[in-house]
Amino acid sequence: MSDRETALLDRWRCERAMYHAWGSFVSETIVTGIRRVIGDDEAKLFFRIPVAWRVKDEASLLAKAFHRGKNYTDPYAEIEDKVGCRVVVLFSEEIRTVEGVLQDCSSWAATLARDFEHERARRPFEFDYQSLHYIVRAKVELRYGEVDIAPDTPCEIQVRTLLQHAYSELTHDTIYKPNVQAEPQVKRAAAKSMALIEATDDYFTQVRARITAAQAPALQLAVTADQLYREFTGLEPEPSPLNSLLIDHLKQWVRGDFEAELSAFLKEKSYLAEFIRERAPTQLLYRQPAIIVAFWTISQAPRSVPVDGPLSDDELAPLYSVLGARLPDARA
Amino acid sequence: MLFENLRVRRVVVHEVFQRSADRTARAPAVGDALEALSAEAMGAFQLRLTDALAAQNQSLQMRIVKHDRGSFLDVASTLMSSTDREFPGTSQALAEKLTDAQDARRIPGGMLVVFDGTVGAPAAPFVGVIKAETQPGFRRSQAAERTIIEFLQDVFLTPATRLYKVGMMVRHDADATRPEGWEAFVFDSNISASNREAAAGYFYGRFLGCALPSSGPYETAKFFDLTKEFVRRSALEPEAKRDAIDGLYSFVREQEPTFTAGAFAERHLPPEVRDPYDAYMRSKQFTPNAVVRDVSQMGTRLRRRRLKFGADVELSASPDVLASKVQIRPIPGDEVDGRPQQWTEIIVHAPLTGEQ
Do A326 and B55 touch (CB under 8 A)? Predict the structure, then answer.
């Protein structure tokens, strides 16, 4: 090992713990930032692979510093991915959500290092590795855990979709490393898969848009039901999967002026509040916000509501009964 | 009336017996304490009531004709203001009254449940009775290590509605002079049977002091007009409309003494318009309860039907002839300006006999 290699490794061994702490801090900050932007529930589904960081192992640090023809003047300082962090999402649009969080963080200065959309624009005929890379550097010295992190410590963040990640896992250690010069057929096959991945991402985005549009009425209904349930009964609802099943079933009777109609209905049938309160402590059904929508739809469409719905006759009968109606015998 | 927000407060159970062979009455076995029903049992009891009273052919609003001292209404009125301690004793008068009313040997005995509570929004007080015949049944239960089957002789108030009758008197105005301010409702599966007077009369007549309502002719005509209007304005295809109207003409002239708008919908309207039909009838304040079928005041409405084809062709016939001797069906016609036309084929099972 040459002196320059020994010197670099000595420094690295001293500072590795600091880089490790910095990577941990950056990962944690990204996760918290995303939670703040899209909410805790959504955030659970957002990260398709847990956000992880790694510090470079010694061999690849040395290789990158001295043996890959990079011509660094100060390799240690110029290698910015001594610690790296990876964020994997499902849709390419979500990459920009992460980007927003990176740019908005007050603990670091973020610099764009690589943007696949810029690369697409520059080389529209190429289908190659795609990822969004940022370098974030600590603005001031900060302490994380037991470790002091020096100002200007860099961390590389790679943000990509699950599909882009798959491509990178497939190719990264093979066709991009100089030691293996891939055959043209291999490169062609890789380019074809990347083209396919980009097209797939377009379809994914369309599918998501359609699903979102299809779910919009149910979501709106669930929000309305939740709010009116609280106002009407004074109870804290406990939505379970039963609530979603009810909402999905009952939404077919919801019309444009539904909210006003439901409010007027509840005002007229104010006795239902007591009926719900009496049963809520012992029966899950009456803790579902959708129960008030069920009452309204039963009053509107008594014959059709039971058909293909999630509730059994035993559960439906009391709802009909308190409204002075009778559960229809025959299911159409 | 809509039996919504029904809350039963106090319940007493008595038992009345069939007359003996020489038609002498046997005194009822009276209950002397309020029943303590569990929430679940109370739920099932209230369900039986609304099941019976809601929108059934056999559930009718009645005219209260007896309201003198000792009448059902008189006792009901006393019960309503009685204390919990007085309630069972006062209600025994009703067990005696039913025993007297059951003057034929073929009338079975049964449980007489007397109860009060409130119903409607705003809530109005009521007093109700159920006469429930008992029936035998089995019950499977776990005793120590093994399951055993028990045979029970006297189960009552199962969902079999033919085995119970309900009478209910609701007070809407405490200040009016009786029977004003009160409404009476009866559910009795025998009411719709053709021998209704004989089978049901003892319960709603002699026991409850009620008579069949006199609004039948008016309500029947109103039902007919509203239903025809609904069908005419509906989005149904012309053939489906004709089927529905055909059904309406035969429905109002059926033999069953009572009907509900809901029963018409079940039998003569396509499923997709039944709920809208209910809503329409509700919006026109047509009663959800049963109506006494009476076409005596429908005038010329049932005599002739006029069907219109296109702008200028009419066919007129009596409903019976239209149903039995005229066949009408749509057929594809010649195209006009490249668009297919629909024609109608009419076959009359009779020769042309003249022109008016």
Answer: yes
